Amino acid sequence: MTDNNKNYYVTTPIYYVNDKPHLGHAYTTIACDVLARFKRLDGYNVKFLTGTDEHGLKVHQAAAKAGVDPQSFTDKVSQNFRDLVGVMNFSNDDFIRTTEDRHKKAAQALWTKLVEKGDIYLDKYSGWYAVRDEAYYGEDELQDVDGKKIAPSGAECEWVEEESYFFKLSEWQDRLLEFYEANPDFIMPDARRNEVVSFVKGGLRDLSISRTNFDWGVPVPGDEKHVMYVWIDALTNYITAIGYPDVDAADFRAYWPADLHMVGKDILRFHAVYWPVFLMAADLAPPKRVFAHGWWTIEGQKMSKSLGNVIAPQDLVDRYGLDQSRYFVLREVPFGNDGNFSHENAVNRINSDLANGLGNLSQRTLSMIYKNCDEQFPQPNEFTEDDKMVLDMAQDQMISKVRTELDKQRFHKAIEEIMLVANEANAYIDRQAPWTLKKEDPERMKTVLYVLAECIRCLGIIMQPLTPSCAAKMLDQVKVAEGERSFAYLSAEHALKAGTKIEKPEGIFPRIVEEEEKAQAAG
Length: 523
Ligand code: ME8
Known about the structure:
The protein has a domain at 343-494: Isoleucyl-tRNA Synthetase, Domain 1, CATH 1.10.730. Helix 10 (268-281) links the parallel strand 14 (260-264) and strand 15 (290-293). The strands form 4 sheets. It has a 6-stranded parallel β-sheet with strand order 3-2-1-14-15-9, sandwiched between helices. Strands 4, 5, 6, 7, 8 and 10 form a 6-stranded antiparallel β-sheet that branches. Strands 11-13-12 form a 3-stranded antiparallel β-sheet. It has helices spanning 23-41, 57-66, 70-88, 101-116, 173-182, 190-201, 230-235, 237-240, 250-255, 268-281, 313-320, 322-332, 343-372, 385-406, 411-432, 434-440, 442-463, 468-477, 513-522; strands at residues 7-16, 45-53, 94-97, 120-130, 135-137, 143-145, 148-150, 156-167, 187-188, 207-208, 210-211, 219-220, 223-228, 260-264, 290-293, 296-298, 301-302, 339-340. The radius of gyration is 26 Å and the shape is elongated. Helix 11 crosses helix 12. By secondary structure, it is an alpha/beta fold. Bound molecules: ligand ME8. Residues 13-16, 19, 24-25, 27-28, 53, 234-235, 237, 263-264, 266-267, 295-296, 302-304 line the site of ligand ME8.
């Protein structure tokens, strides 16, 4: 039924429900959404998964603080993340909650498998635990601050002593290092890969994977006074959603191993160390890639609810527009690096690339066609070298360059490739000056306008993953049928048909005038 090479499975982290979604959360999911949309247009069967992580002490405590039971609490807060799907126009195929039965079943099946394989044993645990991070730390990792033990993340740790199940992580060091060696693209970007490799080379300790001091979690099969450590529960979501434990399920066969787990750098260790080991121990293949992106910061500090410096995705959309916001966050910061949010940069970027670059190109060209070519695409004459050069960039070279960059999650580079074409098309208008040709050589003007309209078609097609609504408007304006918008149509063979009627064009990417003036006055 489906060609396995043409399946693509991409996941976001599942977000904790003790927090309202902010720009940081939206960022990860925007990146995945762009990849999912890109792959669909490139002919892949795509599974794009996001969801919420609803167990653990942190959520338990947040519910207690709110004075409600954990289930009602998670029902309410999980909805904020579902609402974000509408706010940001995400195209996820599924939304998983770890409190669902399908997930409990999968997490327990994985646990049972690991027990059968001899990788889990019962012992006593004592150590430093940070509730905020849902993680244990070694004494040597902690700092003493005012009599408190503080983890490298800044979270306060408490001394915990309890009976716990352990996973034999210490026995997996060599196999894990071999796996990294054989799969150099498993962890990206490279700098992060190096960090993880040195962490693993430093030695792995067995991992405590159950708790008895609270009960808001998936019960351990056969020993229900324990609940599973939230990370083993949470990571399993990636296989729950494709049918685990039924490894013969159609989705499981089509989509595992996942092509990409996208995560923030804060949770790379869980995804790049623990998760592949759990999977290998359960006779399952590790994912093909884990990409750790950087943090959005405000004045140099990580955006987070506890610091009270968050930007709400809805505010961003209200201020700059939905597609503009999606575009800006991926264009502005080299993916993988941290980025400092700045209103001035947002306005400048949106105005220069979208309003002046794409918007202007489209508006100038289509207005001239509407006024001077009888409201229809003109019949071009023979193409000159200059025409062929621009057409070739738009119809042919752009997609393969963008594909190469996106396959490495270099969003900013992919966008640069697109903007290069938009800029070249704008330079071509200035070079060819169709407004002069109108009087001097009307036949040549027709060819130039045709070439430009064809560039707009190609740019509209390739912008769909980034700016879905605005790209749809661009394509509507150049009369591209719904069924002819995939990347298969990026070629000369599917070029615009002369004689097709168009409507009076309307601006698609407005300039942010008032805000820009304010920013200039302030700066
Ligand atoms: O860690 N900049 O959930 P979480 C960029 N439940 N991205 C940010 C960000 C920022 N300032 N703040 C958050 C968890 N993120 C676990 C995950 S997965 C099996 C379990 C993004 O709600 C980034 O993707 O704390 C980060 O990894 C994620 O939100 C953490 O979300």
